[in-house]
Amino acid sequence: MKLRSVYLEQFKLERQGTTLVRELGYKNTCQFYLVPSNIFPISYSLRHALLWEDMAKSSFPFPSSPCSLHILYLILSIFICCLPFTDQLSFQISRFDPAATNILYQGDAGPSFGAIEMNNVNYLCRVGRVTFAERVRLWDSRTGKLSDFSTHFSFIIDTQGATTYGHGIAFFLAPVGTEIPPNSSGGFLGLFNTTTRDLANNQIVTVEFDSFPNPEWDPSFQHVGINNNSIASAVVTPWNASLHSGDTADAWIVYNSTTKNLTVFWAYLSEPGFKQNSSLSYAIDLMKVLPEWVTIGFSSATGQYGERHTLQTWEFRSSLDVKEIGGRTSRKIKIVAGVTVLVVVVITGMLVASLVVWRRKRRVKENPEAKNLTSINDDLERGAGPRRFSYKDLALATNNFSNERKLGEGGFGGVYRGYLNDLDMAIAVKKISRGSKQGKKQYITEVKVISRLRHRNLVQLIGWCHDQEEFMLVYEFMPNGSLDLHLFRNKPPLTWAVRYKIALGLASAVLYLHEEWEQCVLHRDIKSSNIMLDSSFNVKLGDFGLARLMDHELGPQTTGLAGTFGYLAPEYISTCKASKESDVYSFGVVALEIATGRKSVNPLGGDTQMGIVEWVWDLYGKGRLLDAVDERLQMDFEVRQVECLMIVGMWCAHPARNLRPLIRQAIQVLNFEGQMPDLPPKMPVAMYHVPTPSSSANDPLVTFSSIEMGR
């Protein structure tokens, strides 16, 4: 079923709450539709509308004459049209009059030639806000009744021909008296700032048309989103501002208090054949989120890039007003009828739910892994960000996983390049080999962890698929591949400036994982082949299949040994306890690889190998640290930065866990904001307890040295 755009002409009112409209067709043909007024509040003689095409077709025995009567329900109207609207609060503004008192302006917003210009396009980092002057009753604390409402508005986003622009416009419901927060320009859309963006006591619901994806909280594409008490959208769908720059958009937002469903759908007058997904729904009980009385309005903002936001028209209709009528016989009849319908729906729902639960339990009993997969489906499909793909979608995107699209082969499967037409973006698809139980476990771990992370230096998970016994992860495509290809393969050498930028970007990613997210994330497999590079050689740390979550205050955790030889901290190998310090050790090894162009472990001849940490430390002790620098740089580097990166690398890879820095301290030194560590000229040899089932303070100690290690 797809949306099609038509022009509708209001004909007459057929019954209360329903509007009879006429579709203007080809060669003066016409068709009529009964449309619930609360869904499609028509106020002009000619209105652009959206019709669900499959519903409009003859799936019912309608007459085939040119002017036959069709009953067409728009999205969710089956439920909403059954709800009588009494004492409606409504307004319709087709032209914004500067002298009118029913609209309040804040920030840059102001009336201009019958419309509202939301932002001053002559400046950057601007905020504008428009609100309806009267407060709106969302629910009745006396009766517990929740309001239905619908709003229709038209707006224009003009990117002014720029290739980079932002940030967008949003409709919002918030407590009465809400003001523009300070420092809320850019991606905050004038609604939040760094302090308030995720507060538990926020009371705000928004529908955003976001033209600039902020990597900290947005998906990687422009989108329409519904936000619940947060700057991060709860649900999103792709949308592109540049494709409709300067075009008038018509948007409808509808809330059904019975189903607790908030729906937004939109269309463009300039594009009757608009085929993209132009609707979005989200289940939310507004009584639990917002106060009884709210302010409604629009907010928009620009950041380092600009665009023009213009509000042209606005209509609003609500089923609750200050004068709520109660105690009438007709209302009691309606309540009884409503309760009866509700009981039938609940009983039917319980039967269906019981059947679903029974089938799930049976499937889990037959396949224990199904429990984890079902949980992932439930969690991710309720959340924002990554979406679920079908096997067919990904097969089409990768030319049926052809060898020509293969980017590489890992321990648990292949990686393929693909292209998603609906998102207009290149992707990388990680396909787990059939029968790889360990690969499936890592798949589950990676989906659970990375789907919740948002940082500019982490690979963005676009979606996932476990369909037809196939397990796949979909990432944004990295044109420059992984770091190891540039350090150890026959690719042109990276310049020193790019290398130092990569080291800082990787450190920033580790800082986010260790300290800045809500839980501490131990990556456990930081290595050059897991560090991806985008088109500008920005770092994107990936492969979270071995990652573990833990509370920030906890120390090393027994996780079992996992990772890659050469990047593993000595105490981790000895005790099997992963920690922030073991991740920092891996970062130190990568830092030395970046500076030297050598692998973490290098052959000395025969079966003997030397670790890069030992090799660099030996040169450091001899006063020949610069001899370790990658020869391919041909001495074209900043000596101060080279020495700093290698010393920080040795510091992070110190054999003694307690003598390694926090990643924050390493970043300070790399930015020349902290004191350079004073390392001994000879690499220390660390000592660790041998883990035994009955370990004690008297347990024997073993020494661990990375000087020589067998294959």
Automatic annotation (TrEMBL):
Its main location: membrane. The keyword Glycoprotein applies. Its EC number is 2.7.11.1. Residues 401-657 form the Protein kinase domain. ATP binds at residue 431. It is a single-pass type I membrane protein. Pfam families: Lectin_legB, Pkinase. One of its GO terms (biological process) is plant-type hypersensitive response. Interacts with ABCG40. In the N-terminal section; belongs to the leguminous lectin family. In the C-terminal section; belongs to the protein kinase superfamily. Ser/Thr protein kinase family. This is non-specific serine/threonine protein kinase.
